Every structure is written in C-alpha cells, then in structure tokens.
Amino acid sequence: MNLDPIKQKQLDWEKRYNIIVGVSRGLLYLHEGSEFPIIHRDLKSSNVLLDEQMLPKISDFGMARQFDFDNTQAVTRRVVGT
Do the domain assignments include residue 2? Predict the structure, then answer.
C-alpha cells in the first residue's frame, strides 16, 4: 500500500479526529436533535463529504428512515446498506 506523502500530510491526526467528532455530532443531531429523527442506515466513508475547511457533511440519505419520537428503537424487516 503506497501512501502519497503529500496527501498524508494534509490529513494529520488532529484533522482526522475533528472529522470523526463532526460525523458523530451530525449523527447525534439526526437521531436526537432534529424535528423528525432520522436513521441514516448507510453510513460509510464514501458518504461523508469534506468542505473547504475539512468539515464533514453526511450525504446520501437514499436509505434513511424517519422514526417517531415515542419509539425507542427502529425495527426493520430486511437487511439494508452495504
């Protein structure tokens, strides 16, 4: 596995940590902070976009599902995602 040394320096451990924290905050918002809670159901690295300041944005909500506030868990009948 050859890693590009220039790209490797662009994504140091502090930036990686900030990306992880940003994605975690986004998921927390989707689950608990939004008016209609959402389960993404297909979160993976290719569904996290980075803006100019390297701030993460969760994308691809094609498999996402809303759930009611009074539900404590979401029940699905089939396997979804990748």
Answer: no
pLDDT number for residue 78: 57
DSSP E strands in the chain: the ranges are: 38-39, 48-50, 56-58, 65-66
- Tokens encoding 43: 């979160």
User: Residue for token digits 């902070």?
Assistant: 33
Asked if the structure places residue 37 within a domain, the reply is yes
pLDDT digits (tens, 9 = 90+) for 16-55: 999 999 999 998 988 888 787 888 878 888 889 999 899 9
The number of folded domains in the chain is 1
Angle at 28 between CA 20 and CA 46, to 5 degrees: 45
Distance, in Å, from the CA atom of 49 to the CA atom of 32, rounded to the nearest integer, reads 22
Give catalytic residues, as residue numbers: 42
Q: Looking at the domain assignment, is residue 72 inside a domain?
A: no
State the pLDDT at residue 56.
Answer: 95
